[in-house]
Write a structure and sequence with these properties.
Blueprint (H helix, E strand, L loop, with lengths): L15 H17 L14 E6 L5 H12 L3 E6 L11 H10 L4 E6 L4 H8 L3 E7 L5 H15 L6 E5 L6 H12 L3 E5 L15 E3 L2 H7 L2 E4 L15 H8 L3 H6 L5 E3 L12 H4 L6 H20 L4
Parallel strand pairs: 1-2, 1-3, 3-4, 5-6, 5-8, 6-7, 8-9
Helix pairs in contact: 1-5, 1-11, 2-11, 5-6, 5-11
Length: about 300
């Protein structure tokens, strides 16, 4: 079995069979991560470049670990120490990397559409590690994997994405992927943080966190992206927490056995109380572990395709 595309640019339009194949393959690699020797020779001889034009901790380390676990050769590119600082264009940077005969490029960029553009100027397999406000497909996949791991299914589940939806590429990847897998998806947040017309994607919108908790099996809580001026869309962080913060009191009010996800980094006391962030409802650290397995699956499936 193989994927229908040689790139992973987003989850929009990705067939259910591809998503299922990635999740099933990730399950195999998740078992590898529990072994004393967590390495397999699957991508030996392949070279992967991590092309990160935007800050990242979890995603970059997760991809790097996944590549090393698969025995690939990893090259990390950072704009702060590259010729981009000297004025080299993105296209020339990629052409130079391409001339070094790389097999795959993992790219994170502040501009939407850069991974798509890369497919036009490079022969390598391209994996989107987050592009602007567009998508973050491997985060969507690891969220789906983590939900399935905890609840045993995706189809028919009610999943609500809570928070700064307008600035969130994670939210879009979750919406596309979960809907394809048969989940009922909704969003919740202040009206200033919900994109106009988002209902056209076939999702429900909540403006009260209590309703979202009461009616859903899973909450995927998204960070308020202060670095993208999201703070201007709410009166204060304290007020956001009062109206939309997920707290133990709110969960217990409905006596709910709900699952809480968060892609990190967490603004404690804003989106989640510390009690919830460290408590029994959350699978936040499981998401981090699962992220390595999911990225191993994506790298393996693309890296072993016959072009």
């Amino acid at each position: 079995m193989s994927l229908s595309s040689r790139h992973l640019l987003g989850l929009s339009g990705v067939p259910k069979e591809d998503l299922q194949l990635i999740l099933d393959t990730a399950r195999t690699f998740r078992e590898v991560l529990e072994r004393p020797i967590k390495k397999v020779p699957t991508l030996q001889g392949k070279t992967v470049v991590n092309l990160f034009y935007e800050n990242s901790t979890r995603t970059r380390i997760s991809f790097e670990l996944a590549q090393k676990r698969l025995s690939a050769d990893t090259v990390n590119f950072s704009t702060s120490t590259s010729s981009a600082k000297k004025g080299e264009t993105f296209k020339d940077t990629v052409r130079n990397i391409e001339a070094m005969k790389v097999d795959m490029i993992v790219v994170r960029h502040q501009s939407a559409g850069v991974p798509q553009y890369l497919t036009k100027i490079s022969k390598a397999n391209i994996i989107n590690a987050g592009d602007g406000l567009h998508e973050h497909p491997t985060q969507g996949l690891l969220d789906m994997y983590s939900i399935h791991e905890r609840l045993g299914k995706l189809e028919g589940l009610k999943v609500c994405i809570v928070g700064d939806i307008a600035h969130s590429r994670v939210a879009l990847s979750n919406i596309y992927g979960l809907k394809t897998m048969g989940a009922q998806v909704s969003v919740c947040g202040p009206s200033t943080m919900i994109p106009l017309g988002i209902e056209s994607l076939g999702i429900k919108v909540y403006h009260k966190i209590d309703d979202a908790i009461k009616e859903n099996d899973v909450l995927n809580v998204i960070r308020i992206q202060l670095e993208r001026d999201a703070g201007r869309r709410i009166p204060s962080l304290r007020e956001y927490h009062n109206y939309f913060g997920v707290t133990t009191e709110r969960i217990e009010k409905f006596n709910k056995d709900i699952v809480i996800l968060h892609p990190g980094p967490i603004n404690r006391g804003v989106e989640l109380s510390s009690e919830v962030a460290d408590g029994p409802y959350q699978v936040i650290l499981d998401q981090v572990t699962n992220g390595v397995a999911v990225r191993m699956a994506v790298l393996y499936l693309l890296g072993t395709m016959h072009s």
